Structure prediction request, 293 residues.
Amino acid sequence: MKGIVIAIVVNVLLLSAPVLAEEHGLREGAKHGSVTDKVIAEQREALARNTKNKGFGPQSPRDIDSAAGTNKRLFSTAPAYTEMSLCNIHFHKNAEHKAKDFSIYAGNGNGHGYQSGYKYNVALLSKAELMPTKNKICDNSHSTLKPGDTIEVHYVYSTAQVKPGPTLGSCLSKAIKNPQLRVETQVYVLVNDKRALNFKGLTNYRKTKMGRYQATGIPDNTGTAVQYEGSTTGPGYNKKGSPFQVSWSVRPHVAKVNIASVGKWCKKNTFKEDHGHGVRNLVINPKLLSKIK
Prediction:
């Protein structure tokens, strides 16, 4: 019996990489268009129903300006990211989290994560910064970036001995398939300005003497990061709870980034990312939120 149980556990862990990929959304080929408020309400009801009394831990994303939360499922906070190893970088079109600086609701979207989320106020940008680009940026069937757009970048860290690579499966290793995870989060607004931050620099990384990989360009002037306990995100979890525990660090202010540099990154990067991923509905159910201390 003991051998059977071990085999089941191993099989579950081996499936972790595909499940983690739900951060990027299961239905990325979904049609365009905007769904009604009723659809979003039904998704929230399904999430509450599918997680009720099942032991799920706190979920993400959330409004980081609100500290309220009643989920008491405990797990150990991951170490500081400087003591962990960078394993993945990807971004979502529009912010998944909400804060004062990125609080404009993009709309319900297509019900599968696209055209939804939160945005920076483009009225605060100049006409020059909003000038259209000559070429399409990070273009695919359901997402194209334009000046004035908001993106949320996730710098994912793991306590496993790993190196940066595609998908969140890169955060696991053969030796440790249940590592602690931390996501350093920065929201950017895209501008048509060569003087703005270069995305290549923002996503650079190096290997330290301790053998850990570290992102070297995360901004240090966008406010003190809000720390909270949550989960993986992505629209694949709009109706069900994420089973993965994540320590989050979300910076409250945006930074401007040159949209052309983001376009170059989409054409070639270690993580094989070529477009902005969809967002998970903001989690508002107190029973699915941790209390921010």
In short: Residues 2-288 form one domain. Residues 124 and 148 are 10 Å apart (CA to CA). The mean pLDDT is 91. The chain has five helices and twelve strands.
